[in-house]
Amino acid sequence: MPSPTPAPLLVIAALAVAASSTLVAKSQLTPRRPAPSQSQPQAQAASPINRALIVLDPAHGGPDAGAPLGDQLVEKDFTLAFALRLRAALQTAGFTVLTLRDSDPTVAFPTDQRAEIANRSRALACLVLHATATGSGVHVYASTLQAADAPDPVVSARVNEAFEPVPWDRAQAGSVRQSLQLEKDVAAAVGVANLPLIAGRASVRPLDNLTCPAVAVELAPLIADGQDTVPITDAGYQQHVANALTRALLTWRGHADPALPARPSPPERPPVGGSR
Amino acid sequence: MIPRYQRILFWGLLGGIVAMALVLLRGCEQARERLTRHRDETPLAAPTLSPTETVTLLLAKDSDGSITPFDRDIALPAEPTSRARALLTRLIVEYSGNDSTHPLESGPAVDDVFLLDLPLRPPKPLPPGAEAKTGPDAAALPLAADQPGKLQSSYLQDFSGQLAIVNLRGTFADHHPSGIEPESLTVQSILATLHANFPRIRQVRFLVDGQPRETLNGHADLLRVYPIDATTASREEPQP
Fold it and tell me: What is the interface size between A and B, counted as CB pairs within 8 Å?
């Protein structure tokens, strides 16, 4: 006949089991406190860039119509249409494309929100697309920010944890040198395509808030001496510009990391559901 | 058959509507004439005789995105803020001509220009119980030279020279050609012209109708403080 277990031992065992299960559940539910360096927004940018990802920002949208480009056309509609055309060309060349808007939003889509999405993507390059009825050809602009003293705030953050945070309005400072190289690559490709070009630096949101190498590309009607003006709605003209930008980004991929070959990588399948 | 009193009522109402429309149109015309007459002819300051002098205007060109210096002989007031305002007014007038290389709509563009010495310093905190001064006397408050850096605005940092605040008119901004190129050229033309004629100006800030505004007309950022040297030096020639 088995000896009966004393009641106090049963109670103690039950309490021990309950306490251990509670501790295990708490350890699973409570998020780990991030290390000091991880709590800074700059540290999130320490992940390597996605060398196949290009971010396209069709500027304006919603209540912000942008510049009037004709009787029936406004800038927000043109930039969206051109972004879709450029996305197709880039995907054909093997890039993955993140388009910040696929349609005309019903509410305002602020530039800060666009920059935040782009910064989280860690893209190889960010292109902000604009259009105007003034001037001729393609206009390319990089940020007017002066390059940061440190080569990269992320690197300095790793070296010295007591770094100062980068202000939001100067987020691009760490990438200005790369952006200027990207601008040169775009300018060279546009020149090879025999398109009029204006290259410079401008203070346009959200260029200063982007952490990726970024330029603003603005399309204007094509005005050539002795020839009729080609409107920016011309499909052939748009495709010509899209092809030039694609060549520029292929060149830029080689400049972004000279150790790797500049030739295009094999085409990658876009993520499930298509790129946005 | 429409009763006679209804026909009389109908024609009476119609006549009243027409008469009221005519009175309204006439009233609008008179109001506009009155406003225009006051704006154009009312003297606000005693006329002064200023000698003609040579100034440098940095004029933009849309076709190639360049900014080129041109000399003009104009009469300018001696007082610095009025001088800067007259200079920018003349600059915008250059762009409203038929042969302009950077066409802008004609009309008043610059309301005021204020010049402030840098570095700006926050006022010293008032002792408990003291009333804060307002109005023009507020500028005479003692400066907290011993407590710099309390405010973290970028234009309060240790710079020498002057900060120019250019107050543009809302109608000018609303009717400005929209686009990165035309708006940036206008801003840089203003900055470069100020820098060429007022070498002490190191930074420029823009307001529109006395209020901060995000962009000139959808593109060029007007919320930032423009360091004038960096901006004027940032123009690049096309590099195909």
Answer: 105
Domain of A104 in residue numbering reads as 47-256
Judged by CB atoms closer than 8 Å, whether chains meet at B218 and A169 is answered as no
Residue A34 has pLDDT above 60, yes or no: no
CA-CA-CA-CA torsion sign (B104, B107, B111, B117): positive
> Nearest CA to B198 among B99, B108, B87?
B87
List B69's β-bridge partners, or say none.
B58
Domain membership flag for residue A35:
no
How many C-beta atoms lie closer than 10 Å to residue B16's C-beta?
10
A197 reaches B (C-beta below 8 A): yes
Residue B239 in contact with partner chain A when CB distance is under 8 A: yes
Per-residue pLDDT, A45 = 44
C-alpha span between A102 and A113 (Å, rounded): 15
CA distance, residue B35 to nearest chain A CA (Å): 31
Residue at A164 is within a domain: yes
Residue A262 vs residue B21, higher pLDDT: B21
Is A132 within 8 Å of B179 when comparing Cβ atoms? Answer: yes
A64: left (phi over 0), alpha (psi -120 to 50) or beta: beta
Query: Considering its fold, how many domains does chain A have in total?
Result: 1
Q: Decide if A135 and B240 are in contact by the 8 Å CB cutoff.
A: no
Does residue A28 form part of some domain? no
In the numeric block, which tokens belong to residue A241? 């510009």
Contact (CB, 8 A) for A102 and A77: no
If we measure between CA atoms, which residue out of B141, B79, B139, B145 comes closest to residue B112?
A: B79
Is the residue at A4 inside a domain?
no
Q: CATH no. for residue A77?
A: 3.40.630.40
Is the ipTM reported for this complex over the cut 0.85? Answer: no
Chain B stretch 50-109, residues whose beta carbon is closer than 8 A to a beta carbon of chain A: 62-65
Using CB atoms, pick whichever of B179, B214, B240 lies closest to residue A130. Answer: B179
Backbone angles phi, psi at A98, to 5 degrees: -110, 110
